[in-house]
Design goal:
Elements (H helix, E strand, L loop, with lengths): L1 H21 L3 H22 L6 E7 L16 E7 L5 E10 L4 E19 L14 E7 L17 E3 L14 E3 L8 E7 L4 E8 L8 E6 L5 E8 L2 E5 L1
Parallel strand pairs: 8-12
Antiparallel strand pairs: 1-4, 2-3, 3-4, 4-5, 6-7, 8-9, 9-10, 10-11, 11-12
Amino acid sequence: MQLQAFFIRLSIALTLTSCGSLHANPLIDQLIGTTTAYLEGEVIAHLAGNTQDARYEVNVNRLDPRLRLPLCPADAISAELESPAIPVGRVTVRVSCDSGDVQWRLFVPASVDLFQQVVISTRPLARHTVISSGDITLRERNVGQLSGGYLPKPEQAIGLRVRRPIPADSVLSPNQLEQDETVKRGDRVVISAANSRVSVRMPGEALESGSTGSQIRVRNTRSDRIVRARIIGPGQVEVGL
């Protein structure tokens, strides 16, 4: 009899636990609904100026079902992004209720997965490889998880040089790439110097390699004088007068 009574009590306890899990907490529902609607609006606004096709998923983290606060009137509840500055990745939303009878503020964690086409390597790329169209392609990735950045357009990578080895099927980020060397050490260059009154051109030799816009040491082959000059194009450098 005692064993039978134990099983009856256990059955009742399990039933009550199951019933309690089936009844939603109205406050939890309100928080989830408010947070989701707010984040969807923020993501749409964030993507408004983006010409790339994208899709998104908003997921609110599991909230404590023991939370007990009065429901907020629909016209008194508001939401604001607490962190980070843009609604992508892991986010925190500050949900506030400000009515005459009910006032509270809660921080709701959520995640916003943003899926976009980004530039991916199609093969392993060795250090100093100059990227061509055959080295890359576009594939969908969750950009909210790409902490190093990404490139949405292939033309942003083509012609650039790889700073360090990149495995196949890797997302390319801006900090992995650099301008290819426009002038290489030992190249013959034309040194230009000009101001509003005079313009001169002299033959020279590059003592360093560099890309367009960078400063390198150049030797004037007429005078043997070494100067610092800015690369303005293949075989072309300039100095100030």
